[in-house]
């Protein structure tokens, strides 16, 4: 009895479990559906557009007077809408025009083949059609491997092959095949017309605009990456904490640095697809600015690779002591701040479709770079001996100080500011002579020593920062070129005044929101 | 008269020009056609397969007895072949199965809708169909935005929408629509059958095999990049020559280093497409090894980013003097050689579908890494002063030497071999005392001095080499995992004997050519 009730209980529990699971699944699905729409509201609009277009085109078939005019072939209009109406206007135009062109050419070729085939008897006719189908099929398929055709006309070629086969093969049994083909072309044109109307005039979604916004987002992501990267490198947290953080990030892939640049790294194919579709959109045809966006994307990817390497410096096993990092914290911070500021200015200029004035901000970056280089130069020379195991200078220095003033002293010198401290700095010191140089002090911590090996990671970090500036120049070059090609508005002086203030968030809120420019 | 003859001449010339141009265009086109086929002979095979399939399926329509059995709808088989038969088996299966599933589900839903609609009067029937078309159109289109559906079933969803609309809309006018749908399904199945037959049994082209080979090629490309990179960095050519080379490369994009890694960097989308198709291929379904190839691809991309940064070191404006680079040439060269050797071994093990034995070669790499680290450690400590503008040690050293022996001398010391030269090296020197330390020599070149700034690029280079080794371990991890998941043959000891010989081209020619494994 007890056993049974227990079984009953577990059964009830199982039922409860199943209901609970179903409920949870339902909730998850609802949340997922909501999320997909919330991420990009245009998805909802596009879905409604497809529904409306299909209903509209169905009317051709469903309404008596329209059906009488067009007839059975109205179904081809429905088919066209399903296949051609895509998310963005560019994609719809690409597919629609390719479909139109493919159908037209296939019709012409089929007409030619039929004319030739009709001259012959029945069996030869069949053989002729079979051969034509084989040859056109093989040649057309081979053509799809040409990269230019593959890229721009792949869909058109498939439709060409499809239509050609439909017409040629049908023509063997049906005499009025050209009439049918003519009618179908007519209904396909209606379908294409509805698609173009829907995608060009009702809430149009432009691939070119997507490309534009994704480029802006890339700049923001890269700026964010550099900012976080520098902050983490010079943060005071101890090394173990940082390592744990890095481990955590690598498990969950949520590292904000990685998040900032990951979209840039893998942007090639999405950029190229968007640019392909944009190339069919009327507003981009004239300027060919989509090509420039692709070029800018390539330069940004290479910029991104350097940030990946910079990120790698944070994760390296050999750490440069915090005390050494602190020495260069200010110039590095300043340089990084200037670079991120420039990136944000570039993103703002593209967002607002204004030409970018490359001179003023770029100079700030180069000033900051010069600062960093000066800071690096101000360090004493390195001595590498060719018989690679001597510590001579170290020994010399120590000896010299010992001979003069005992065991544990270090000396300080007036600072030597000079463009070439390696040469002039030395002579300056020597001119000042013995009296000053060896004045003893008691500041034990005045000089930090570290192994060459320990200096490596910092050297790599600094070197990559310098590299980033070099690559930033290439990016600026492409942005200026973009402004020229895409005929952005002239640079106005007001922007500088706002942008030049060097706070942490120098982003200027866009005066011309992108939706405005998208609709014009 | 003269004018006329001159005109005639120019006219003839123009005609000649046109003919010449036409000829040249013809030659170019022929060469292009030849090249596309030569690059990948499977393209020719695929084109012939499509031609043959289309001819076969046309027979359904062209041959009297077959046509009597199947009728008008035979044309749908032709359509299916055009749309479904793709280059690789996986792609054909993906499209064929998606098409089949989409058609089936659409038919069922259409049947359900028709049952409900038939209960009502004519006008309500039309309204009901219109509403159904709108709703199904909108919902289906919205579903295409879910990433999982987009990735795996996008084509199926489009076919579902297409078939549903065709059947539902047609059913309003044609009573026997379900009979037609049934017949069409039948012919579509024939079309799909021919496609599957062609792609599974006649010269099959496997996406999984493409993914496999492209992975192998990536390893070879990366190895090549590192090899050339190191050779160029330590080549004796003067800096100007190198710069010219770099400029030439950047113009023509033919830099062998760039060529080696560029395919790796942008491999994400092609990898994912190949993996998607491979996931539909029967031989990969069981092991899910395609997922592991994608993971390996991700790790290889990150490995590639480090090589990009290494490549950047060659192009940097601040150059480390050749004399300093030479100091570290041997350990760097050895490390790079070991890394490329490991990469080639990895590529061989994947090519031959053998498990990779990670221990032996990896140790060689770590030995070489230790060598480099030792070489770096053997250099004297660096001194960085916190009041950052003093050249104190330099001055001290110079003074000490001046005081003892005049203006232009440098001293050499017996080498100090020790694990911690920073600490022990110093005491060793001090023990030896004054007598040895300040023994003057005349070898001016005994010690190379350089600015910290000049040391940066080399430090970055060395640091990136160390980083490469770290990333190589991650790559090895994934290759071992691949061997496990894809059930590669056990590692045999013979391979090591061949591979371990450390020449420049340690590639073992594959005993099991890939065509063999592809056909089994």
Automatic annotation (TrEMBL), chains A, B:
Q: Which UniProt keywords apply?
A: Ion channel, Ion transport, Membrane, Transmembrane, Transmembrane helix, Transport
Q: Which domain of life is it from?
A: Eukaryota
Any keyword Nucleotide-binding?
no
Q: Where in the cell is it found?
A: Membrane
Record keyword Ion transport present: yes
Could you list the residue ranges that cross the membrane? Answer: 44-62, 74-94, 123-143, 155-173, 185-206
Give the membrane topology: Multi-pass membrane protein
Family note: Belongs to the aromatic acid exporter (TC 2.A.85) family.
Question: What name appears for this protein in its UniProt entry?
Answer: Aluminum-activated malate transporter
Organism, by scientific name, is Solanum tuberosum (Potato)
């Amino acid at each position: 009895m007890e056993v049974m009730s227990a079984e009953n209980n577990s059964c009830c529990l199982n039922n409860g479990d199943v209901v609970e699971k179903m409920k949870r699944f339902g909730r998850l699905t609802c949340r997922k559906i909501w999320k997909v729409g919330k991420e990009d509201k245009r998805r909802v609009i596009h879905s409604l557009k497809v529904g409306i277009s299909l209903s509209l085109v169905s009317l051709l078939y469903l309404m008596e007077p329209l059906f009488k005019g067009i007839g059975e072939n109205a179904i081809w209009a429905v088919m066209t809408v399903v296949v051609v109406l895509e998310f963005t206007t560019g994609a719809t135009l690409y597919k629609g025009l390719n479909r139109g062109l493919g159908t037209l050419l296939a019709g012409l070729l089929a007409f030619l083949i039929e004319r030739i085939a009709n001259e012959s008897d029945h069996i030869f006719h069949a053989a002729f059609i079979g051969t034509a189908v084989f040859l056109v099929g093989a040649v057309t398929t081979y053509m799809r491997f040409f990269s230019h055709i593959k890229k721009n006309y792949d869909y058109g070629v498939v439709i060409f092959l499809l239509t050609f086969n439909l017409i040629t093969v049908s023509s063997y049994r049906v005499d009025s095949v050209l009439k049918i083909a003519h009618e179908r072309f007519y209904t396909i044109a209606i379908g294409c017309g509805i698609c173009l109307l829907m995608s060009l005039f009702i809430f149009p979604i432009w691939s070119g605009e997507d490309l534009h916004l994704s480029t802006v987002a890339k700049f923001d992501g890269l700026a964010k990456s550099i900012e976080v990267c520098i902050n983490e490198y010079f943060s005071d947290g101890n090394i173990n904490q940082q390592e744990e953080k890095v481990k955590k990030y690598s498990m969950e892939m949520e590292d904000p640095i990685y998040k900032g640049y990951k979209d840039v790294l893998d942007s090639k194919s999405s950029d190229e697809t968007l640019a392909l579709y944009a190339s069919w959109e009327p507003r981009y045809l004239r300027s060919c600015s989509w090509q420039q966006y692709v070029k800018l994307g390539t330069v940004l990817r290479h910029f991104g690779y350097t940030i990946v390497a910079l990120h790698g410096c944070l994760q390296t096993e050999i750490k440069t002591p915090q005390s050494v990092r602190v020495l260069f914290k200010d110039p590095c911070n300043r340089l990084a701040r200037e670079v991120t500021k420039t990136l944000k200015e570039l993103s703002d200029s593209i967002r607002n479709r204004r030409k970018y004035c490359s001179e003023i901000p770029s100079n700030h970056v180069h000033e900051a770079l010069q600062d960093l280089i000066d800071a690096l130069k101000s360090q004493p020379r390195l001595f590498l001996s060719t018989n690679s195991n001597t510590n001579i200078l170290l020994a010399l220095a120590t000896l010299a100080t010992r001979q003069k003033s005992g065991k544990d002293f270090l000396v300080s010198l007036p600072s030597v500011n000079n463009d070439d401290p390696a040469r002039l700095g030395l002579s300056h010191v020597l001119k000042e002579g013995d009296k000053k140089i060896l004045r003893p002090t008691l500041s034990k911590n005045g000089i930090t020593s570290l192994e060459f090996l320990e200096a490596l990671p910092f050297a790599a970090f600094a070197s990559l920062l310098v590299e980033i500036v070099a690559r930033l120049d290439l990016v600026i070059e492409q942005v200026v070129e973009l402004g020229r090609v895409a005929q952005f508005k002239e640079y106005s002086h007001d922007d500088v005044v706002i942008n030049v203030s060097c706070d942490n968030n120098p982003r200027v809120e866009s005066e011309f929101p992108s939706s405005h420019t998208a609709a014009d």
